[in-house]
Amino acid sequence: MPTLLFIHGHPFDSSMWRPQIHHFTARGWNVKAPDLRGYGSAPVTEGTVTLPEFAADLLGAIDDEPVVVCGLSMGGQIAMEFVHAYPDRVAALVLADTSPAAETAAGRTARRRRADEITEHGMAAYAEELLPGMLAPATIRNNPDLARYVHRMMGDAPARGAAAALRGRAERRDYGATLLTLDLPTLVVVGREDTFTPVEEAEATAKMLRNGRLVVIENAGHLPNLEAAGAFNTAVDSFLASAVQRR
Q: CATH number for the domain including 10?
């Protein structure tokens, strides 16, 4: 069976894909969802880890056959770097709640400053600040267990690993040219209430693609794979049924 490679976002770890790991494994897919360098149980690299370095790490984690790459937020940017660098290793692409744009000058400064702050002070305040943007207000209100889980996952991220990724992400390339020339089947997914990557931005991303489709997940913010796991899984199932030859 083809492999599904799930790439987590920042500042999370591979456990954010737990609903997808269970769902797609049960459906016969070979699922891989590694912890990125500096997150979860993976070793921490001090200083800066760039998106090309993350992509190279992932290349070493897969077999020779092309894989379906699914990334969310920073993971989506790593997925775009992966298909930019290794186009022959990708069978299809899922880009969730992410943006192909390069970082702005102001954004680079902010990411570097935040990296220094969490290196010195840890992740607690950062996790508290991020939570309202990660989840839709109704999710926080109606699903407090999920909100606590997301908050804990962010707070538990290794500060120096998260800081290294922030510095590397500040230097990311613009992936617009890559998407404009991409012939691969590509699914763009976004939560209706995502404020980090709004629906309008996802629509613009989908329009860049020759062979793309857009799905908006209702009642979800930046983490629709957790907030509305059933709808997210259904969207990916439908895309895979038409995009990937299952052997």
A: 3.40.50.1820
